[in-house]
Write a sequence for this structure.
């Protein structure tokens, strides 16, 4: 039928990493993947930095893809790493740069301490090598894991986490992270909408009501780590609290995860809801 041959309904991918955090591809390459997947819009959501946004926007414009400015902020509550996605924030908002810089400085110091510990426990890697692997990115454990694999102390990144730098492993060092409510407020002050990332991996639904009270605007419902049951569960929670729903592939590329750009069924409509929320906040 002719109807089935017309353009597919629009889809978006609102969770993408680049070499500006722990992704393996440049912003330009990620935009090219989005073009191949025929996405209407994407958000670059690197960890604790906005550096990928401008180059992605420059590549997205001629490709006819809308680029939503985004970020994935590091927060923590006790032992839980809480990731907060921010959308439509103004990169030039006062105070934002300073907070991001502090998070990145914290990552640098933490990486130095991790390398010291690794040297002490007999799995030496050089800090210079870790720096080179991180390149333009704030240093994350995936960069250290890559160095551990290179040095032959582990055969896979998973094994590097398991044996050395995962939460219960001997060279784990916590990083400087924001209080989740402070992360929500930081995103809102910058004119953005704060969204709780992959709540299904976080497994801390107890945090949601408190974050809603502080201005949380959405919940990531579609994510590669969410099965159908989780998707429905978080749709229901979003409905209960009047939150927007979002989703994305959490694409890192290379050996870092198995997702591909555009592999989550996130309809363009979710973007309209987010945009309306960002505009309402700006008033
Ligand atoms: P960091 O923010 O530096 O503590 O690093 C956390 C990041 O490491 C997460 O965002 C994931 O992308 C990645 N990660 C966590 N566990 C693993 C694992 N087992 N294998 C590979 N990457 C992982
Ligand atoms: Fe990551
Ligand atoms: Fe995350
Ligand atoms: Zn992510």
């Amino acid at each position: 039928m002719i109807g089935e041959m017309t353009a597919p309904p629009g889809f978006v991918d609102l969770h993408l990493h680049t070499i500006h955090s722990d992704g393996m591809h440049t912003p330009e390459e990620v935009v090219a993947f989005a073009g191949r997947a025929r996405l209407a819009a994407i958000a670059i959501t690197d960890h604790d930095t906005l550096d990928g946004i401008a180059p992605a926007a420059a590549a997205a414009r001629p490709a006819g893809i809308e680029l939503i400015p985004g970020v994935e902020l590091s927060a923590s509550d006790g032992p839980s790493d809480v990731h907060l996605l921010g959308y439509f924030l103004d990169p030039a908002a006062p105070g934002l740069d300073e907070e991001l810089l502090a998070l990145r400085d914290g990552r640098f110091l933490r990486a130095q301490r991790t390398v010291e510990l690794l040297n002490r426990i007999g799995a030496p890697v050089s800090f210079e090598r870790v720096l080179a692997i991180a390149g333009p990115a704030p240093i994350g454990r995936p960069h250290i894991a890559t160095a551990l694999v290179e040095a032959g102390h582990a055969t896979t990144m998973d094994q590097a986490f398991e044996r050395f730098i995962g939460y219960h492993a001997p060279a784990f060092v916590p990083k400087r992270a924001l209080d989740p409510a402070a992360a929500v407020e930081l995103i809102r002050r910058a004119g953005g909408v704060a969204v709780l990332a992959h709540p299904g991996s976080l497994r801390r639904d107890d945090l949601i009501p408190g974050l809603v009270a502080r201005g949380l605007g959405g919940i990531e419902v579609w994510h590669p780590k969410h099965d159908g049951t989780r998707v429905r569960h978080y749709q229901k929670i979003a409905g209960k609290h009047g939150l927007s729903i979002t989703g994305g592939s959490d694409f890192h590329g290379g050996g870092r995860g198995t997702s591909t750009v555009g592999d989550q069924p996130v309809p363009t409509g979710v973007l309209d809801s987010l945009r309306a929320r960002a505009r309402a906040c700006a008033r």
Q: What stands out?
A: The radius of gyration is 19 Å. Residues 18 and 25 are 5 Å apart (CA to CA).
